[in-house]
Amino acid sequence: MPDFAHERLHHPGLVAGVDEAGRGPLAGPVVAAAVILRQEDCPDGLNDSKQLTAARRAVLEGEIKARALCWGIGVASVEEIDEINILWATMLAMTRAVEALSKDCAHVLVDGNRCPKWRWASTAVVEGDAKCLSIAAASILAKEARDRMMIEAAAVHPHYGWESNKGYGSPMHLAALREHGPTPLHRRSFAPVAQLVLL
What we know:
Layout: H1 5-9, E1 15-21, E2 30-36, H2 54-67, E3 70-76, H3 78-84, H4 86-99, E4 107-111, E5 122-125, H5 133-156, H6 162-165, H7 171-180, H8 191-198
Parallel strand pairs: 1-4, 4-5
Antiparallel strand pairs: 1-2, 2-3
């Protein structure tokens, strides 16, 4: 289970955890979250969002927002993903998430193997959402925020099953993409969408 070992390594000063949701889907934005937890008042049960049920994530999202020192959400649009590619769009969303924090941080822990080029001292932590409580909290906020966006988008574009697949290339999504074509929320730089655009 994640703990505060990485956060404590970088004290003194406030340490934020950052994670993203939505690098792999064929549709929708990429969303990042940044969280500075209070070590003396941390919600129980924080973990990599993928290891939690939807019901548990929803409860923890509320607890994180209520009890964290501060948190922020950053989004990179489909247009930005197609223009600068998914890697740099992810870095952009992470930067926006840290910029959205109401407190400045001395250090940022980033899930993954590389950090954005930004003004903060930072450390990349591979599988950080399973190791660092701050990154685990960020993973929950990012996933919950993006899931809501895709559920709302599903009401506008009902054929693709986004309320359940969240834009990932499920068989239903791919079949609907072949039948109905791409929407403005589809990432045209991603191969399954690009191939249909060229037909």
